[in-house]
Amino acid sequence: MTEQQHDENKLERVIRKIKRCMALSKSSNENEAATAMRQAQALMREYRLTELDVQLSDVGEAQSSSVRVERRPAWDRDLSATVAGVFGVRALRRWSWCRERSARVERAVFVGVTPAQQIALYAYETLLTKLTSARREYASSVRAGRNRSDYSPETAANHFAIAWVSAVRQKLYALIPRGEDGQADDAASSGTDLVAVEAQDKALIEQYMTGLQVGKARKRQAYELDLDAQIAGLLAGQRVELNPGVATGGEGVALLTSA
């Protein structure tokens, strides 16, 4: 282990201890709460940490194992952006050298407050597998003449995939509990708390992003889509069933199946 790794591991242990102290500072026992807060503040002073530093330690990245040598297609980027929006994380595109392929590859990366980025990655990769299969089947059907199109099979399949993502977006949003107006006081309070947490997470992610080199997104050119492919994609997306599952510790995951 290098000296730098040793220092990083030590800092991680200190931050975990500070978090435990801050959690104890909310205790109903006033003496225990005051002692815990003093310990947290003392550790932060000793290691020159701020509360923002401690909060930022919860922000991390999760990158897809799926890679493409060429630029990821629009429907793939739409999927990662959709999943990111649903789970409150940021979706990035990252190029890196792949020794196995001896080429630069692009992959999807999610930045969020733990464990949101891992949940988003799980949903993205699971949906990507299903979408890739559905798109391939549609391209084959156009090639075989079962579905007619004025476009090439690959282009029609791309239009199919874009619509598929649009249909699945609403299903993903339905999995996430969100506060609604007009509910009971406790429900309204929960909704307010959720908005506050989402705002805090967004601020932490933006703060984390300032340390990354992120290029500007290219503006997508407008083009006419194959209406038949769109309809087929919407119908196929609507047939995808998303079954919510909740893991221990409040880490929600989406278990996805197809009808």
- What proportion of the residues is helical, as a percent range? 55-70%
Query: Would you report the number of β strands?
Result: 5
What is the 3D shape?
elongated
What's the N-to-C terminus distance?
50 Å
**What is Rg?**
23 Å
Number of domains: 2
Low-pLDDT runs of 5+ residues are 180-185, 245-255
* Strand coverage percent: 15-25%
Number of helices: 8
Helix-and-strand structural type = alpha+beta
Across the major sheet, the strand order is 1-3-2
Largest sheet: 3 strands, antiparallel
Topology pattern, helix = H, strand = E = HHHEHEEHHHHEE
What do the pLDDT scores average to?
82
Which short descriptors sum up this protein?
single chain, 259 residues, alpha+beta, elongated
Write the layout of secondary structure elements.
Blueprint: H1 3-24, H2 30-46, H3 51-56, E1 59-63, H4 74-87, E2 90-98, E3 103-113, H5 116-143, H6 153-175, H7 185-209, H8 227-238, E4 240-246, E5 252-258
Antiparallel strand pairs: 1-3, 2-3, 4-5
Description:
- The protein is α+β, with helices and mostly antiparallel strands and 259 residues long.
- The protein has 2 domains: 3-56; 73-89 and 114-258, no CATH class.
- Helices cover 57% and strands 15% of the residues.
- It has helices at residues 3-24, 30-46, 51-56, 74-87, 116-143, 153-175, 185-209, 227-238, and strands at 59-63, 90-98, 103-113, 240-246, 252-258.
- The chain is elongated, with a radius of gyration of 23 Å.
